[in-house]
Amino acid sequence: LARGAPLAEAGEPLDPGELVVAELPAARRDGPVLVAHAVSLDRFGNVALNASPADLAGTDLALGRTVEIESRGERFPARFAATFADVEPGELVLYEDAYRSLAVALNRGDAATTLDITLDDEVRLSPR
Question: Which of 124, 123, 89 is nearest to 106 (CA)?
Fold first, then answer.
């Protein structure tokens, strides 16, 4: 289209009535634990969650504090921080990403591989 091709060459028309909305699970609280799901993994192994900082209201999960990240029954310590520079290389960090979602990263590493997280996996965040 950008080069002037007719719209008809872009593909077969779709009936708008056949489109469906993808239902994503919502983050939820389980007592002091925030239960989220992995919604995106980037090429560096950073894991975007379906939770925002607003979902932390009323929890003891606060910026600068140590948190526990649970994935597939394994527990890992992390720090809730503003930037990767706030943690040492090799440490896990929970942070607010550019989309204002919570995300998990491993400073100079691959959090998705280290925590064995794949898309839609449940990730539990709790105070430590």
Answer: 89
Residue 66 lies inside a defined structural domain of this protein: yes
What does the alpha-carbon distance between residue 113 and residue 116 come to, in Å, rounded to a whole number? Answer: 5
The residues near 107 (Cβ < 8 Å, ≥ 6 apart) are: 84, 87, 88, 89, 90, 91, 92, 93
Q: What is the pLDDT of residue 9?
A: 84
Beta bridge partners of 103: 48, 95
Under 8 Å between Cβ of 50 and 97: no
Is residue 74 a contact partner of residue 115, using CB atoms and an 8 Å limit? Answer: yes
Strands of the chain, DSSP E: 28-30, 33-41, 47-49, 66-71, 74-80, 92-96, 102-106, 122-127
CATH number of residue 110's parent domain = 2.40.30.90
Render pLDDT for 55-83 as a digit per residue (tens, 0 to 9). 998 889 999 999 999 999 999 999 999 99
pTM over 0.70: yes
| DSSP-derived pairing of the beta strands 74-80 and 47-49 | unpaired
